[in-house]
Design goal:
Blueprint (H helix, E strand, L loop, with lengths): L1 E5 L3 E10 L2 E10 L4 E3 L11 H12 L14 E4 L1 H19 L15 H9 L6 E3 L3 E2 L4 E2 L2 E3 L17 E6 L3 H9 L7 E3 L4 H10 L5 E3 L26 H7 L14 H4 L8 H17 L7 H23 L6
Parallel strand pairs: 4-5, 4-11, 5-10, 9-10, 11-12
Antiparallel strand pairs: 1-2, 2-3, 6-9, 7-8
Helix pairs in contact: 1-2
């Protein structure tokens, strides 16, 4: 199994499976599109406790251990203006507890992997919108944890996946605006919802589309092997993990058995064609469409039909054998 980068945005997983003497190549693609992290609230005066927010932020920001160079790391946060004022101090508190006030010397804080990516991430920083951090050191490929506010969807930092320690915050008035913003952009590889309101969580999940979703944490959805991982739309094609990997890398062959006695039913498909044959085919298709949903009724429906048929047949046969019926 090989993980390979194809261009700047797309990663392909390729598995080479020899079949006889002819190798087959199967690809799963997922585009590294922007990831949504949401903490939306129903009312401006959200009553969530500061401790609860802090714990969620610990989960959200722990990805800075790798300088956010993870394709599932959150790229931006959507929240209300009221929540933003509570959010920023808690994020700063979490960062300082992780990396102290001097993160450049912290053994736990990662620097950007090379000079090219350092310059790329640095260009995404709008110094006029930085409310925390923003310091850089080209000699060490260091970019401090940075928070940016008053960010809009047209800003440069919102045009690509960041892969760096930048956190843009976009304010919305309510969850409907958050949903509208998400749906106006390409479908993300992951969507993170932070809320204790179950109805709100379900509304966001039902109203958006993403490759995966995690509630009140990040990246955890990739851990269980029983859950499929992959993108949707522009964020990916196909999925894998556990049995889903087996299904993805297997070909599901369709097989249809047509009995020879059915020829009188389908002989109208053969030329020469006329209106009479066309009418018969239309009737046959109508019957087919009407009866197709019946298998969905399940085992017990067909068991009842089979039992009824057997009983009726036995009654008829016994009646004939006992000469009770005359034809």
């Amino acid at each position: 199994m090989l993980l390979k980068h194809v261009g700047p945005k797309v990663t392909a997983m390729m598995v080479k499976i020899p079949i006889d003497d002819y190798p087959q190549l199967i690809c799963i693609l997922y585009e590294q599109g922007q990831i949504n992290a949401i903490k939306v609230i129903s009312h401006p005066d959200d009553s969530s406790s500061v401790d609860e927010i802090y714990m969620r932020l610990l989960n959200l920001r722990k990805q800075f251990d790798s300088s956010l160079e993870i394709h599932l790391a959150p790229d931006y946060v959507l929240c209300s203006k009221t929540m933003e004022t509570r959010l920023i101090p808690e994020i700063v508190k979490a960062w300082q507890s992780f990396y102290t006030d001097n993160s450049i010397n912290s053994d736990s804080y990662c620097h950007i992997i090379n000079e090219r990516h350092f310059e790329r991430v640095k260009k995404l920083i709008d110094t006029t919108k930085v409310v925390y951090g923003g310091q850089t050191d080209a000699k060490q490929n260091y970019i401090a944890p940075t928070i940016m506010t008053n960010v809009t969807g047209t800003d440069k930092v919102m045009q690509e996946e960041i892969f760096g320690p930048l956190l843009p915050i976009i304010t919305v008035n309510n969850e409907l605006e958050a949903i509208e913003f998400i749906n106006s952009r390409p479908k993300p590889l992951a969507l993170y919802v932070f809320s204790s309101n179950k109805n709100l969580i379900q509304t966001i999940i039902n109203s958006t589309s993403s490759g995966s979703t995690c509630v009140n944490d990040v990246i955890f959805q990739i851990a269980p092997p029983c859950l499929p991982f992959g993108g949707v739309g522009e964020s990916g094609l196909g999925n894998y993990h556990g049995k889903y990997s087996f299904d993805t890398f297997s070909h599901m062959r369709s097989i249809a058995y047509i009995p020879t006695w059915a020829e009188f039913l389908i002989s109208n498909r053969n030329p020469p064609y006329n209106q009479k044959k066309t009418a018969r085919l239309e009737k046959l298709l109508k019957v087919y469409r009407n009866w197709m949903p019946l298998p969905r009724l399940g085992f017990w429906f067909w068991a009842f039909v089979a039992l009824t048929t057997v009983i009726t047949t036995r009654i008829i046969v016994r009646g004939i054998m006992d000469d009770k019926w005359e034809f």
